[in-house]
Structure formats: C-alpha cells, structure tokens
UniProtKB/TrEMBL annotation, chain A:
Origin species: Paenibacillus graminis
Domain of life: Bacteria
Organism placement in taxonomy: Bacteria, Bacillati, Bacillota, Bacilli, Bacillales
Identification of the protein by name: ABC transporter permease
CDD domains named among the record's database cross-references: TM_PBP1_transp_TpRbsC_like
Any one GO MF annotation of this record: transmembrane transporter activity
Swiss-Prot/TrEMBL keywords: Cell membrane, Membrane, Transmembrane, Transmembrane helix
TrEMBL record, chain B:
Cellular compartments per GO CC: plasma membrane
Name of the protein in its database record: ABC transporter permease
Annotated membrane topology: Multi-pass membrane protein
InterPro entries membership: ABC_transp_permease
Transmembrane annotation, as ranges: 12-31, 51-73, 85-102, 108-129, 138-156, 188-207, 235-256, 315-333
Compartment(s): Cell membrane
Length: 312, 348
C-alpha cells in the first residue's frame, strides 16, 4: 500500500493524469455536444483513428505539424459529416451508422497505411511531425504546481480550454440553446421554427471536430507516430465519461479526468504487479455502476410521481 | 414487373451490387493488375475444396452471432454485447477443455454447455437492467464487452498461459475436447450442424410459439404489447438470455472447432459482424445462413486476394461499412418504392 502511495503522490503521476486525459476529454466533449442534440455518436473511436492517421500522413508530406493538425481535423469532421448525411438524410440508424464508421476506420486506416508505407503495423517509415509542448512562464517555477501544470502538449492545454468553450457554447449562445432544445424535444423545437436537421448536422460536425483533435493528439503528441488501432478504446471511454457525467459539461470534464486517472493508475500499477488487464476494466465497471445508480433513481422518481398523481 | 413486396429483396441486392462496384473501383485504383485481382477476389474462394471449406468455416461463427443479434434486434434491443460474450465464453470453454478429462463426446458437450450458460447469464445483466430500470442496453452492453475482454485476457495471461509456448496462448486442449471434422480436406467441424439446428429452432420459436409472438410484438411496439397484456419485462430478459446463450455457444464452438489452444488476445470481432449479418438477413433466422455465407465469402475472397495480389485484405472493411450504411438507410431507394406503390394503386 505504501509503495502505491509513493507512486500516486508524485508530481510525475499528476502530470501523467493530464497527459492521458487529453484524448478522452476531447472525444467526451464531442460526445456531449451530439448527445445534447439527441444523437448518440458511437463513431468516436473511428473518427479518432482516421484523424490520427491523417495527421501523420499530412504532416509527413507537408513537413508541417500544423498543416497535419489541420488535415486531421478536416478528415475527422468529414467522417462525422458522412455519418450525419447517412443518418439525417438517408435515415440510417445512428447506432449502426456508428458501427459502420468504426468498422471502416479500423480496417481502412490499416489499408491506407499499408498503401503509403508498405507496413501494416505502424507509420515508422513516414517522417511525420509532432506538435510542440509548451512551458508556461511563471507557472513553471511554482513548486509542485509547476511540474504538474507546465510543460504539457499544446493540445492538452487546448482540451482544457475546450471545456470552457463547450460550456459557453451550450449554455450561453443561441446555437447552444437550439442544440439543447432539439435534444430535449425535437417536435417542440421544430414548432418554434428551429430546423432540427440543421442543428443536428451542426452538432455532429462539432462532435467530429472535437473527436479529431483527440485523434490528432494520439499520433502527434501522445505518441509521435501512427500504430494500428492506437485509439484502443478511448472513444468508448469518452462515451462512457459523457454518460456518467450525465450530459453536463462540468460532469463530463470531471469524469474524463477520473478515467484519465484510472488510465494513468493502470500504467503506474504495473510496478506493483497488479494485473493491468483487470485495472483496465475499472472505467467500464465504474460506468456500469454509475448507469445503474442513475437508472434506478430515475425509475424511482418516475414511480413516485405516478403514485402521487394516482392518489390525488 | 417488380411488386412492392419484393422491394426489400431488390433493395438488399442493390446495396450488394453497389458495394461490389465500390470494391472494384478500389481494386482498380490500387492494383497493378486490376482485372486479375478482381477475378481472384470474386472466384478464388470457389477454386479448391480447401477454399470452399474456408468460407464455411468462417460462416459458422458469423451464423452464431448473427442469429443472436437478430433475435435482439427483433425485440428492438440495440445490444451489441455478443462481441464480449463470444470472447468470454470461448475462455470458459477453454478452461474446461484444458482441465477436464471426460470420455468421447461428453467433453466438448460439457465445455460448450458451460460456455453457453455463462453467456446466457452474462447477457441477462444488461437485459434485467433494461427491463427493470430502463438502463440503456446499448451503453451497458458496450461496457460489458470491454469488461469481459479484460477479465478474459487476465484469465488467459495469468491462469491458462502456456509458458513453454512462444506466443501468448493457453495450454493445449485435451484431444477429447476438440470437435470432430465433417469433411476430409477441410476444417469444417460439427459446429456447422449445431448452428443449423439452432437456426431452425430459432425460426420455429419466433414464428410458431406464443413466446416468439410476444417477442416480435414487444419489438414492434413495447407500449402496445404491454397494453395488450404482455409482460414485456419478462420478454426482454428472455430474449437476452437466449441471445447470450447462442453467442456463448458460438464462442465455445469456435475455439473447440478451429483451434487446439485459446489464442485470442483481442476481441475477435464476430459480435459486431453479427450485427451486419443480422441486418443483411433482415433479422430473419433462416436468412442468417445466406447472409453469413455471403459475408464469409467476400472475406475469404479478400484474404486470398491479399495473399495472391498486391491489394491488402483490409479493403473489405470499407465494403462492409458501405453495406451497413446503405442497408440500414430507410430512405435509400424509397422514392422508387413510392413510385411502385402509386402504380399498383392505379392498376387496382
């Protein structure tokens, strides 16, 4: 137990929590926006994978990490756009659409990787670029906080900033109000002149935008290359974080941090010989428990309401 | 002259044709010898007895999960848990295949029964959560996939792993546990008979029994089913139990039929493929046979193409995505259906 505390109570550990939270947080914010508009986007995993690969390819061919990032974001948003086109225009079931996106990405990225590099495993032969990390002046000199908060990847800071942006977007802007009203009651929103389809398109594109930032971070920050299936379930964890955070911005950000901590812990605990396979299931177990508690309390509330109206 | 009642069949055919055309386009772009490569993709699976065998071997697990998922979809349950259950039941069956010693056909029977029962029980959990508290079965089943994979991998690495083997594989199964082969020169195993029997039983269950009727009604409209006196909560739990049993049996049969050790270090993907099979089959048990064979055929075609030409087999996942997107697209070709309806109405 002591050695466990020795691992956790270090600035290195706190630093790594923020590091591993970044992709989860981006994708969870994306999931949040589309969910608030009433559409579950389970294609997160696929969108992240596609953008991670595109970032590597574009940065390798243009010799610029920033152009690579742009390519990653465009490709991820494009995939979300395709999903939106099929679900909103062709009425493909959104869940199956998401399954299709994930299936496409897991094989399609390997396919393209192989065509470009002749390797099915990783992009080592492509000279891809990495986005920079940032030392924050003044902050970096503060003891304890400095080593935890300074020196992170630029996208890590952007992810924290995105929490504020998404909060502001959803709660303080007309678009946010429309997104929420469409999610809560599309018919009512339609009747006051909101174009439900347009809002859902926007929400899905935004969810793809944020997910692709998470994907770009994977291959241009967290690692400096693309490897097959490198997203490794982070898209699913993000969806879990969103539903455990009960579709609020603050809740989503906090549960993402929790899952990030669990992830960092599973890396740290390998020192203690606790099986990583079991630790890796913790976020999912936590989500199931969170969902059960939520569902039970909702049902109780509903039944109570029914009873009180019945006795009246 | 086409009639409206054939619309769904024509639509499915149209989707398959479009998907194949996209496959040809990709091959033409990528390959140095596109015509030869397309030929391999389309015809090579039929070229030898071994290759035909490959198609049928691949179709067996797809039939199992396709059947499981189609029953869930029929009940309007968006549950993708067959993925994790298929894997975990495979682990369970492997434990018995390694550690038990039983004579003759009793050994595989015991291992498959254990895998199936564990599958049914695990599947019941999201079912109960849905039926009693309306917890979203999609999210819970997806979480369960990851949990079951983690626990299964832990069992493999810490309790079943053969340290003498060079890869991350379990100890060898007892010879008595392995399923026997049906045809010499192929690896087609008795699992084929099991799954075909299961499919016929599921068909009879769905269309000839009261429970099957209740299941279909609950799927069509849960509120209406409840008002007409059906215990829909019970139906939902029942369909989860049955689907989990079938998926679990599939995982057990697959490891005992195709392998001599347990060797999956990632989810094998048959559960999500099952969703594709179920959709192609329009959730009809008997049609599962044809759609699993079709999917297995293009997969084996892609594998052979990767081996014999310069196009990697991962191309097939692009084709599968196109099929899913178009098959489940309600509006696709709808205009044409409407025109036919109009015509028939005028003729009448």
């Amino acid at each position: 137990m002591n050695s466990l505390l020795n691992v956790i109570l270090t600035t290195d550990f706190a630093f790594s929590v923020l590091r591993v939270t970044t992709p989860i947080l981006f994708a969870a914010l994306g999931a949040l926006i589309s969910n608030r508009a009433g559409i579950i986007n389970i294609g997160m995993e696929g969108i992240m994978l596609v953008s991670a690969l595109t970032g590597v390819i574009v940065s390798a061919y243009t010799h610029s990490a920033w152009v690579g990032l742009l390519g990653a974001v465009l490709s991820g948003t494009l995939i979300a756009g395709i999903l939106a086109f099929f679900t909103l225009k062709f009425k493909t079931h959104i869940i199956l659409g998401g399954v299709a996106i994930n299936m496409f990405a897991s094989g399609g990225t390997v396919f393209i990787l192989y065509l470009l590099s002749g390797d099915k495993g990783s992009s080592t032969s492509l000279a891809s670029k990495v986005l920079p990390s940032v030392q924050i002046p003044l902050l970096k000199d503060i003891p304890v906080l400095g080593p935890i908060l300074s020196g992170h990847h630029i996208l890590t800071y952007l992810s924290i900033l995105s929490v504020l942006v998404v909060y502001y977007l959803l709660n303080r802007t007309p678009l946010g109000l429309r997104i929420r009203s469409v999610g809560e009651n599309p018919h009512a929103a339609q009747s006051v002149g909101v174009s439900v389809i347009k809002i859902q398109y926007t929400a899905l594109l935004l969810s793809g935008f944020f997910a692709s930032l998470g994907g770009a971070y994977m291959s241009m920050g967290y690692l400096s290359l693309f490897t097959r299936d490198m997203v490794a379930g982070r898209g699913w964890i993000a969806i879990a974080a969103e539903s455990m955070g009960r579709s609020t911005t603050v809740g989503t950000a906090l549960t993402s941090l929790l899952f990030g901590a669990a992830d960092a812990l599973s890396n740290a605990l390998q020192v203690l010989k606790i099986p990583a396979e079991l630790i890796a299931t913790l976020p999912y177990v936590a989500t199931v428990i969170g969902l059960i508690i939520y569902a039970v309390s909702e049902t109780r509330k509903k039944n109570k309401k029914l009873k009180t109206t019945a006795t009246k | 002259m086409f009639k409206v009642k054939y619309f769904e069949a024509v639509r499915t055919a149209a989707v398959i044709v479009i998907a194949l055309i996209i496959a040809f386009l990709i091959i033409s772009l990528v390959s140095d010898q596109p015509v030869k490569t397309i030929g391999i993709f389309l015809l090579e699976p039929l070229s030898t007895k071994g290759h035909i065998g490959n198609v049928i071997e691949m179709a067996i697990p797809l039939m199992f999960t396709g059947l499981a998922v189609s029953l869930l979809f029929r009940a309007n349950m968006f549950n993708l848990g067959a993925e994790g259950i298929f894997y975990f039941s495979g682990v369970v069956a492997s434990v018995l295949a390694i550690h038990l010693s039983l004579g003759g056909w009793l050994h595989p029977l015991a291992a498959i029964a254990a895998g199936s029962i564990v599958g049914a029980l695990l599947s019941a959990i999201p079912g109960i959560l849905k039926a009693k508290w309306n917890a979203n079965e999609l999210v819970t089943s997806l979480m369960f996939n990851n949990i079951l994979f983690g626990v299964g991998l832990y069992l493999l690495n810490y309790h079943l792993r053969d340290a003498k083997a060079f890869a991350n594989v379990s100890f060898k199964f007892e010879k008595t546990a392995q399923l026997s082969k049906l045809f010499a020169g192929t690896r087609i195993h008795t699992g084929l008979i099991i799954v075909l029997v299961l499919i016929v039983l599921a068909h009879l269950f769905l269309y000839r029994t009261k429970w099957g009727y209740e299941l279909r009604m609950t799927g069509a409209n849960r509120e209406f089913a409840r008002y007409s006196g059906m215990k829909t909560a019970k139906v939902i739990i029942l369909v989860h139990l049955i689907a989990g049993f079938i998926a679990g049996m599939g995982g057990s049969v697959e490891v005992l039929g195709m392998y001599s050790r347990f060797q999956w270090t990632s989810l094998p993907g048959y559960g999500l493929d099952g969703a594709l099979v179920a959709m192609l089959a329009k959730n009809n048990p008997l049609s599962v046979i044809a759609s699993a064979l079709f999917l297995a055929y293009i997969r084996i075609g892609a594998d052979l193409m990767a081996r014999l030409s310069d196009v990697p087999s991962e191309m097939i996942s692009i084709i599968q995505a196109v099929i899913i997107l178009l098959i489940s697209a309600e509006q696709f070709l709808k205009f044409w259906k409407n025109r036919m309806l109009l015509k028939e109405a005028k003729e009448a």
